[in-house]
């Protein structure tokens, strides 16, 4: 650049000013900085802002097109997809709704009630405890003779994503009376005993006796193996529970691995909303074997 700047002067001037190269290089440097414009023009442009980028312009002075908001109807399928995925995750890992199909748990639960079942804690190794109301898969022909539901397509879909109680799975709901290692027994009409301790059972259906005095299974004394539970309905004289399935595969016991989860809330109908706590009788001293 220095050579170009000097070569632009006449020969006479070149001889006259040859001894002052620093002064002749200054205009050339200015010319390089201003890209062909003099310093006054650059100052004017800086003051007037003629070559600055406007707020609504892109690089190079081109107009920047504002982004149009996405149409609600284009976002709706995405939102629905996210909702379905969340519903499936909740049903699989957290909570699932179940419908009560019979009167075997009266008056704690009525036919037609909807309960929410905790499916999360079993993932962390939690096992059923005495007094809990649990939902479990049919461990072996307990539901023989029961009518098979015939849901329509909408019921099947809503059940699949967990927004309606399951209508196809063969599940039962009962109260846990004994866990692995317990001895459970019934003599006469009661009381029901666990490890020799009599249970005070205010949840038993009014008019029922804690034990059924019959020859079909109402009288028993069993030792619950580890990894199994013994379950009974609160409507003792109207419940086909562990007592009456001792001729089946697990001799009336329910494998812990078949337990779906604990029923924690009566969610529907609204006027029957409430929790399902463990009764105090299962906290008495000396109950553990």
- Helix residue percentage: 10-25%
Rg calculated over all Cα atoms: 41 Å
> Please, what is the average pLDDT?
77
Question: Which structural class is indicated by helix and strand composition?
Answer: alpha+beta
Low-confidence parts, pLDDT < 50 over ≥5 residues?
A: 1-55
Largest sheet: 8 strands, antiparallel
Assembly state of the chains shown: single chain
Shape: elongated
Overview of the molecule:
With 289 residues, the chain is an alpha+beta fold. Helix content is 23%, strand content 19%. The chain is built from 6 helices and 12 strands. It has helices at 2-7, 11-16, 21-34, 39-48, 72-94, 153-160, and strands at 95-99, 114-118, 133-137, 171-179, 183-186, 193-194, 197-198, 220-223, 228-232, 254-255, 259-268, 274-275. The strands form 2 sheets. Strands 1, 2, 3, 4, 9, 10, 11 and 12 form an 8-stranded antiparallel β-sheet that branches. Strands 7-6-5-8 form a 4-stranded antiparallel β-sheet, with no helix packed on it. A hairpin with a 2-residue loop joins strand 6 and strand 7. It starts with a helix and ends in a 14-residue tail after the last strand.
Short synopsis of the structure:
With 289 residues, the protein is α+β, with helices and mostly antiparallel strands. 23% of the residues lie in helices and 19% in strands.
Keywords for this structure?
eight-stranded antiparallel β-sheet, 289 residues, disordered N terminus, alpha+beta, 6 helices
């Amino acid at each position: 650049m220095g050579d170009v700047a000097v070569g632009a002067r006449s020969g006479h001037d070149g001889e006259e000013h040859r001894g002052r190269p620093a002064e002749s290089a200054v205009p050339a440097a200015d010319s390089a900085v201003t890209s062909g414009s003099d310093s006054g023009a650059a100052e004017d442009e800086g003051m007037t802002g003629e070559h600055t980028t406007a707020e609504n312009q892109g690089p190079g002075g081109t107009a920047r097109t504002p982004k149009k908001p996405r149409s609600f109807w284009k976002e709706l399928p995405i939102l629905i997809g996210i909702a379905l995925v969340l519903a499936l995750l909740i049903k699989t890992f957290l909570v699932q709704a179940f419908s009560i199909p019979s009167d075997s748990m009266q008056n704690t639960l009525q036919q037609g009630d909807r309960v929410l079942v905790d499916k999360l804690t079993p993932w962390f190794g939690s096992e059923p405890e005495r007094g809990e109301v649990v939902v479990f898969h049919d461990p072996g022909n307990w539901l023989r003779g029961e009518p098979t539901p015939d849901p329509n397509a909408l019921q099947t879909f809503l059940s699949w994503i967990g927004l309606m109680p399951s209508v196809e799975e063969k599940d039962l709901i009962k109260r846990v009376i004994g866990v692995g290692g317990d001895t459970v027994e019934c003599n006469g009409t009661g009381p029901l005993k666990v490890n020799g301790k009599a249970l005070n059972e205010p949840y038993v259906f009014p008019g029922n006796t804690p034990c059924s005095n019959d020859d079909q299974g109402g009288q028993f004394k069993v030792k619950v193996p580890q990894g199994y539970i013994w379950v009974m309905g609160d409507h003792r004289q109207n419940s086909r529970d562990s007592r009456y399935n001792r001729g089946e595969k697990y001799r009336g016991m329910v494998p812990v691995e078949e337990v779906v989860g604990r029923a924690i809330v009566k969610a529907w109908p609204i006027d029957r909303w409430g929790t399902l706590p463990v009764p105090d009788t299962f906290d008495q001293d000396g109950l553990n074997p």
